[in-house]
Amino acid sequence: MKESVSTEPFRPADDVTHHVGYLLKRAQAALRGAMDKVLREHGLTVPQYATLELLAQHPGMSNADLARATFVTRQSGNVVLRGLQEAGLITRPATADHGRARPARLTDEGQARLAAVQGAVYAVEQRMVEAIPPQRVAALLADLERIAVTLED
């Protein structure tokens, strides 16, 4: 069945709690709360977990790249990296080979901590996705990507 497309210009709902932005923020806050809860049991924060995930996929990322990818400032990203390094979960060279970038990598302990928490985090995402009819998940992902790209311009 084809969905009809309105030719009317978009008009936000009269009730702010029904606006797209409000509902996106509510969903994001609920996701953050659920992730905080499961990560706390493993001694991690959401930015720390995101950093471990990214470094597992892309070893050697710089602080600036990690900060952008985890939605924190460079200063906050540096605090996250220092905390992970002090906990023995990542390693970074004491000085940069060139420029200011000090590429980070997971330690064996970092890989183990990430593996221990992934199941709990993925279960949160599974709960979230199960609230959506399966045939609509791909469209939702595409819509969210288009929203992000549009607003980043």
UniProtKB/TrEMBL annotation:
Q: Which InterPro entries match?
A: HTH_MarR-typ (IPR000835), MarR/SlyA-like (IPR039422), WH-like_DNA-bd_sf (IPR036388), WH_DNA-bd_sf (IPR036390)
Return the PROSITE patterns for the record. HTH_MARR_2
Domain HTH marR-type as annotated: residue spans:
17-149
SMART domains documented for this protein: HTH_MARR
Q: What is this protein called?
A: MarR family transcriptional regulator
Q: Which organism is it from?
A: Streptomyces siderophoricus
